[in-house]
Each structure stands twice: as C-alpha cells, then as structure tokens.
C-alpha cells in the first residue's frame, strides 16, 4: 500500500510526549481536532489512562503482540519503540487499534494507533519520551473488542558516563 | 633484577613449563628451552586477535586489577573474568613468579615488573604478527577489537592518524569500534574511508531515525577453500557511556536478534563454514549474547580488558575469549574448519613481553617518526611518584586518587569525581611522571573540568547510577566501566543490592551527606558539551608544584560483609573486609 493511502486510512493520534514523526505533534496540539481523545491522553496515572482508553486495567499477555524497545535508552527524549502484531487483517477479523503506555510518564498513554484491514499489518515504529527508567507496554485491540497485551519492556534511562 | 631475552630463555628452559598459556597444545615448545612463541600450525585457518591497545605504541607497565567483583546475583561470583590475584592464577593453573604469572595477576606487581619488563608495544606486536604471517601465509588474518585510536597524547593530537598508520603497517584485516567514535562521525568516516586499510564491520550501528546500517555488518573470507564469516560488533553503549553528541545520527545497542539474522545469513546465504564475531561488547555481555544467539563458533572479545584467555569460555557451543588491553596479549586461534563446521582448535594466549620479543625495525622507525614532532612535550618531567600508580580496579585506582586530589586542591572543592575508565597504564614507584603519562590517563576529546553544586541526593544518585552500570545482575546492563572514582567521599557499598540501595552511610569529609544540602564537586569528562580547562592542564600543574607524590589513602568504600571471600577481591583489607 502506498504511504498516502495508508495515512488517509489510518487515524493517527499521539500525546505530546511522543516525538519522531512531524505529523504527530501537530495533530496532538490541535485541541479542537474532531475525535481527539483528550481524556485518555490527559490521564495522569496508568490505571486511569488504561481505563479511559481500553476500559480495563487488566489485559492478558499475548505472544502475538511484539513490543521492541531498547534495554537502555540512548536518549530519553527519543526512545525508539516498535510494535508489530501478528494477527490476521481481514474484513471481519483485524486489529483495529494499538495503545502504547509508559507507566509513570506524566501522561501514561503515549500513543494510540487505529488500523483498518487495508493496512495489511498492525505495525508501527515511533519515538517516545521517557523521563526515567520505566516500563513500556502495548495493548492491541481487535475489531471484536478482544484485548491482547505485549510483554512489558523495561527501558532504563541512566546518566551514563564512565565507559571502559 | 631485569631479565634480558637470553635470561628468559634460560629460565624457561629450566622451568620446563608447557608453553605460553596453551592448554590446548601441551606439545608446545618451551620445555626444551626453545622459543615459547614457536607454535606448530594446526588446522587450516588462523585468527590473530588484539584489542583495546588504547593507542599505546610503546611498551608500558600494566597491572591487572586487584578488584574485579562478580556477585551471586550476576552468577559471576568466582567465575572468570571475575577472579583476581591468587584466584586467577589457581583457575588457570599458573605459578605466580613466572612470565605468565606476571601477566595474569596483580600480586607483587612492582617486583615482578622489574623482573619481567614492560608489556605490549606495536613494534613487538609487529614482530610476532609478521613471524606468524610468514609461517602461515594467507591462512592467518589479524582482527583488531577496537579502542585502538584513543588513550595516548599522540593519538589525540593526530586525531588517531598515528594509530591508523600503525594498524596499516600491521596489515590488520578487520576492525570494530568504541572510543574511535569520540572523534566524531565525520572523522571516523574519513579515516575509515581514506586511511585505514582494515575493513570496519558492525552489525549493531544504525542511522537515526531510519534504522539503516551504517557499516557492513560482516565479511566472508575464503581461506584454504573454507568460508570464514567475520561479523562485527561495536560497543553497544557508545552514546550512553560516552557523549552522544559525537555521533548524533547513529544509534547503537546489542541487537541480539539482528545478530542472529546475520549469523543465519552468513550460514544459509553465504554457506559460511565457521562464524566468528569480532566483539566490543565486553566479557559479560558476550557471554549472555552467546547464550541467546545460535551458530557463533567464536567470539573474539574486548572492551572490559579482561584476562579471559588461557582457556576460552564455552557458552552454548560458542568459544569466548577476551584479549586484555594495552597490547599485553596476542591471541591466536588455529582452527580446523571442515565443511560447514569447526572440527577442532588450538588456542594460544601470548603475552607480549617486550624484553622477550625484539622490536620490528619498520614499526620502530614509524613510531619514532610519528612521535618526533611531540617528543619534547611528551618527555616533560612533572613529578616523581613514591607509590605504585595504576587505574584499573573496580574502585579508586591510585592514579585516580591523585587526579581527585589534584582537582579538589586546584579547584578548591570539598569533593571530586573522576570517571571509572579501564584504560590508563601503570607507573612504578621511583619513576618520573611525564606529560606523556598524564595524557596516558586523560587523553580524551571531552576533557573539560567542571565544578558542580550537587545536592546530597544528586550526589548519591550519580554514584548509584554508575554502580548499576557495573553490578546490574543482567549482563545487558553492564556497560564495561568501573565504579566512579571519588575524592573525599566515603561510603559503604553492597554490590549485590539493586539500584539506589547499594550505597549507604554516604559521607563527604567524614560527615553524613544530607539529601538537600549542596556540595561543591569537581569532575571531568561530562556527557554534555561544557566549557572548562582540560584535566591534563590542571593535573600536570598540580604534579609540577608537588614535585614528589605518594598515595597513602584511597577513598575506597567499605564493602558489606557478604563480599567476604569474593574471588574478585585480592586485597580484602582495602575494603575493611
């Protein structure tokens, strides 16, 4: 699928803390964008953010949700994170959304990506901001409302220095 | 006593040892008084490995650490490389007062050094490399594990060009990097593209943000009809352990899954018969990576400057070594490579004892030439030391103690920090510290000295963070440096604890640190761009004023009692154990 079509068909939203794509911050700042899920992104505590975005705080882990993040951040202001969901993307059975959380960020919901079967694959890469060592977790939602969580990944943010 | 080459031969003949650290080859030569560097070739491929020379063109003194702790939490208590002194000798079955004993342990270093002489030196390495190439022809390849461009005055002043010249004279085949990157991406790319003849390989360096490989990940070399795959692994934590602004568009990391992909590609697509990783991970990271990635035959390791040689370590069918630093060892693997598999090997861990190996005239002439413009500046005498000065240790080395003392006095600070680097060679009692020696401890591209007002909480946080880079139970968090060096800071330390809990009873000048009180701390090697005087200016001025220096007290922590009997501690009394 060509890039333009992809962007048109996907609604991309992200909190201010997410960086890396020029598209995301401009969307995030537009407070009056129709459909902007302000409440979810404003939540200050993980439980609240999860509740607001997916309606629950407990999600079963699934090997189908691959979350890749560095064990140690090279730059806490731009931590590269990849989510890839191993799931069919057919008209009646597909991943319709993926939510990314950082447990103790000021707004724990870092981003929400919405997909349609035409995307072919529920996959994205982005850079997120992390103030300190913390857990990153992804939750994928199917069109039927079923939730699948990734294995949480700890990303260490350290002052570094003193390399041998 | 200072033994000449001839004396060496005589002693060796009498001692009837079984050859230089070659447990795989009992038949090696020197029981008969013959040259211990003489090796009967085995198999069809030879790998020669040097690493972490830290730009020491000339022979130096190099004392092994007296403290190199592994904890039960890390599963490294008493496991190589976390063994020192007597434990190291016992593990490898080597007597203390022998050339090998001298090379392997820190015990009685001053006396042993006088007896057995300096180690390393590119002219001495060159003699041995040339000899083996002559013996083996094109079946021998020379691999350099990185950190060759940094650590000396001349490498800093020539921006590594002196080292590239030496590497080319050695006819190195492959190279990976770490400190190399602190010259900045442009300089690295220029030297690799236009000057260095060796191939630079790295499977773990990618562009930001597109994740495209910056370097070739591997190379396939056909030797004697067999395909040898060499995969490069540069230092995974470069932008964390060193300033990221030198390489703002490059991302690093360990990338074990990508490593697996590269191994599979070498084996399936290129039909490699043997897969070798030239690694700057550090010993602990290499061991974990070998447990996760299948199909690597050999990891030639560096970075953490370990003696992990005489016997390779085996993890998940992968042989792992670590080849020390400062040119102290040349490692040689003779391999019998069959179709699609390694059938057998002989391994030799050869100490470069400069009194035993004549200097190569071509390399000697080159070294003299590159040093000539700086000779006067390098030789400037600053002070005489009455103490043994060394850096390598988990906690304050004596050289670092002097640097901390100098910073505190010159900048009028109540405390000082100095980085836990593992390079920086040794000076013997009675020797004169020259400007070259000062540069040998400080020659980096971010040398500025800063004075920072830390709150007590910040002070503790800095120390806890660094400690976790050294003692985290997960090897993938071990960055390969030692504990931050401190001046006038006292603490109790438990390596086996978790982050923020290792340090207790933290004091400055003997007084308990208060979390919100401010402390004036001198330091150098900041991670951000800062203004300041280079540390070598301050240190050399201080030395000159003192004329004579000695280290009577090291600001070492008190270690908690659970460290009692740890085979990574040669002198427990230094830590009140």
Commentary on this structure:
The complex is a heterodimer of chains A (164) and B (577). Helices cover 17% and strands 32% of the residues of chain A. In chain A, the strands form two sheets. In chain A, strands 1, 5, 6, 8, 9 and 10 form a six-stranded antiparallel β-sheet that branches. Mean pLDDT of chain A is 81; it is low at 1-30. Chain A has two domains: 1-31; 38-159, Immunoglobulin-like, CATH 2.60.40. Chain A contains four helices and ten strands; from the N terminus they run H-E-E-H-H-H-E-E-E-E-E-E-E-E. Chain B has 577 residues and is an alpha/beta fold. Chain B is built from 17 helices and 25 strands. Chain B has a six-stranded mixed β-sheet. In chain B, helix 15 crosses helix 17. Mean pLDDT of chain B is 94; it is low at 9-19 and 22-32. The interface between A and B is medium-sized, with 19 and 41 residues.
Which features would summarize this protein structure in a list?
heterodimer; A: 164 residues; alpha+beta; Immunoglobulin-like; 2 domains; 6-stranded antiparallel sheet; 4-stranded antiparallel sheet; 4 helices; 32% strand; globular; disordered N terminus; B: 577 residues; alpha/beta; 6-stranded mixed sheet
Q: What is the overall number of helices of chain A?
A: 4
Distance between the termini of chain B: 34 Å
Q: Outline of chain A, from the CA principal axes?
A: globular
CATH architecture of the largest domain in chain A: Sandwich
For this structure, what is the CATH homologous superfamily of the largest domain in chain A?
SoxY domain
Share in β-strands of chain B: 15-25%
Major β-sheet profile of chain A: 6 strands, antiparallel
* Largest sheet properties of chain B: 6 strands, mixed
Show unreliable segments of chain B.
Answer: 9-19, 22-32
Quick check: average pLDDT of chain B? 94
Following the backbone from N to C, one meets helices and strands of chain A in this order, namely HEEHHHEEEEEEEE
CATH topology of the largest domain in chain A: Immunoglobulin-like
Number of strands of chain B: 25
**Regarding CATH, which class of the largest domain in chain A?**
Mainly Beta
Q: Give the % helix of chain B.
A: 25-40%
Mean pLDDT of chain A: 81
Gyration radius of chain B, in Å: 23 Å
Helix count of chain B equals 17
How large is the radius of gyration of chain A?
16 Å
- Taking the alpha carbons of the first and last residues of chain A, their distance comes to 46 Å
